[in-house]
Amino acid sequence: MKRIATVAAAALIGAAFVQYAGLAFGDDGWVTLMDQAGKGEWGEVGKANWTFKDGLLTVDKLDGKDIAYLVSKTAYKDFQIRAEFWVDDEANSGIFLRCDQSDKIDAKICYEVNIYDKRPDPTYGTGAIVDTAKVDPMPKAGGKWNTYEITAQGPHLTIVLNGQTTADVQDSKHLNAGPIALQYGSGVVKFRKVQIKPL
Questions:
Q1: Cα-Cα-Cα-Cα dihedral sign, residues 51, 79, 158, 107
Q2: Phi then psi dihedrals of residue 111, to 5 deg
Q3: What is the pLDDT of residues 66-108, one digit of tens each?
Q4: Backbone angles phi, psi at 54, to 5 degrees
Q5: Do residues 117 and 89 touch, judged by C-beta distance below 8 A?
Q6: Does pTM surpass 0.85?
Q7: Which of 1, 4, 79, 181 is the one with CA 20 to 30 A from 67?
Q8: What CA–CA distance (Å, rounded) separates 97 from 113?
């Protein structure tokens, strides 16, 4: 019986290792999805020229008409995200949360934390959660390094951009665990660090 328990424990540890392969864990519970040491493990939906060079994940061109995404291999339900990013004024990007699928990403099946200074309707531009939490006034992210701190805990979502709370909302459209995704739509987008801490 003891041997069976040992084998079962080893199998569970092995499964956990496979699930989280490619992720770097810190002592404080933060998981590094990408940083200056490496791009990390992501799936792709759509095509763009994502490149990792000089410690930055950079993208500035779509390969086709469809918006492109890097999608996490792991699903997350309740968590905090810290993301450091730089965009130019023309950029259309964002961070998608709790996506219902990993092979199709959009704001209907995920929460989209927007990075889009020139969005035609600025109420859901940079700092907003598209179709969920408006931002007023809309902060600008273009031309500088920024930090997003995103918390999703049950129906409670909070977005902090560069120390300023831009969204704080209760919403239950997407409560299940799902992957996160980094979006590229236009302009120049660079990510320096993306970390997540399961809650």
A1: positive
A2: -85, 135
A3: 999 999 999 999 999 999 999 999 999 999 999 999 999 999 9
A4: 55, 35
A5: yes
A6: yes
A7: 79
A8: 8
